[in-house]
């Protein structure tokens, strides 16, 4: 559309049928790539490689719905085609996280011969103790730590939930902080893009032999596939590790969300913890 200066989005005339047509186009676009290759010769690989997952479709329509809600709230239109349109459902797999023992295995791993990987390891483990998002980790400064407590304002929720998050640091987390607090830079940790960070974290985990297999949802087949942790870990695994291990000890979503930066009652919180057998045994013991 950027190349068509005459294109106008008819927000007053868009119908649920138009949304359904758009949905069918997105579902089948990978087929059109083969049928009309000349239209896709300059397209990104993400468009041309394979069928889109339900989660991608959900994200696309959620963004489009935001445009319509913005227009409605500002009196630009009264038309809301989403009232008669069934949104694609996002599907998430079983939450998994690194155990305390596996986290400590990373913490104690001798990387003296590879200081570059050691930095990635330190950042990941520190994130496991803090539970923040990757972007917030990069924004931390040494001034964010006051009397052994990290204070920061989550960037994702600051516009609608301006609460400062406070997380006390453990002895191991403070040891990592002490290694980096005197760096002659504004931020506590070096800045890396998330793709490089994830790649390095997986390399560290392979060196630590973290090969426990965890269920990973294939977004296209909707089937779980068992993969070793060192193949699938990302920066977000650190956030899940913080939340999952805390929830295993204290089943209080509001208490944990006050330290993870989730809004109270956030539906997203359920994607970060799982009800494992140990929790179930503990509950059953209460009535034993």
Short synopsis of the structure:
The chain is mostly helical. The protein has helices at residues 16-35, 45-48, 54-73, 100-108, 115-130, 134-139, 171-180, 194-207, 229-232, 235-249, 253-260, 277-286; strands spanning 145-146, 149-152, 165-168, 213-217, 224-228.
Model description:
The chain is mainly alpha-helical and 288 residues long. Helix content is 47%, strand content 7%. The chain has 12 helices and 5 strands. It has helices at 16-35, 45-48, 54-73, 100-108, 115-130, 134-139, 171-180, 194-207, 229-232, 235-249, 253-260, 277-286; strands at 145-146, 149-152, 165-168, 213-217, 224-228. The chain has a 3-stranded antiparallel sheet with strand order 1-2-3. Strands 4-5 form a two-stranded antiparallel ribbon. α4 (100-108) runs antiparallel to α5 (115-130), α5 packs across α8 (194-207) and α10 runs antiparallel to α11. The chain is globular, with a radius of gyration of 23 Å. 22% of the residues are buried. The mean pLDDT is 84.
């Amino acid at each position: 559309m950027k190349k068509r200066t005459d294109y106008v989005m008819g927000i007053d005339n868009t119908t649920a049928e138009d949304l359904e047509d758009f949905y069918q186009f997105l579902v089948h676009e990978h087929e059109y790539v083969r049928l009309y290759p000349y239209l896709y010769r300059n397209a990104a690989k993400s468009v041309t490689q394979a069928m889109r997952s339900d989660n991608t479709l959900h994200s696309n329509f959620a963004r489009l719905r935001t445009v319509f809600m913005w227009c409605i709230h500002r009196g630009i239109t009264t038309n809301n085609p989403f009232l008669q349109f069934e949104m694609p459902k996002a599907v998430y797999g079983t939450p998994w996280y690194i155990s305390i023992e596996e986290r400590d295995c990373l913490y104690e791993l001798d990387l003296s011969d590879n200081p570059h990987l050691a930095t990635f390891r330190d950042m990941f483990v520190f994130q496991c103790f803090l539970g923040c998002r990757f972007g917030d980790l990069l924004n931390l400064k040494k001034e964010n730590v006051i009397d052994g407590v990290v204070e920061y304002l989550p960037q994702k929720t600051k516009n609608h939930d301006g609460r400062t998050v406070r997380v006390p640091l453990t002895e191991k987390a403070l040891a990592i902080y002490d290694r980096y607090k005197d760096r002659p830079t504004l931020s506590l940790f070096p800045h890396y893009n998330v793709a490089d960070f994830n790649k390095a974290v997986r390399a560290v985990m392979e060196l630590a032999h973290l090969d426990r297999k965890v269920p990973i949802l294939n977004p296209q087949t909707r089937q779980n596939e068992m993969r070793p942790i060192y193949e699938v870990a990302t920066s977000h695994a650190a956030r899940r590790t913080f939340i999952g291990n805390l929830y295993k000890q204290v089943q209080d979503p509001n208490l944990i969300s006050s330290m993870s930066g989730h809004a109270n009652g956030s539906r997203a919180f359920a994607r970060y913890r799982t009800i494992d057998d140990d929790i179930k045994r503990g509950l059953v013991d209460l009535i034993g």
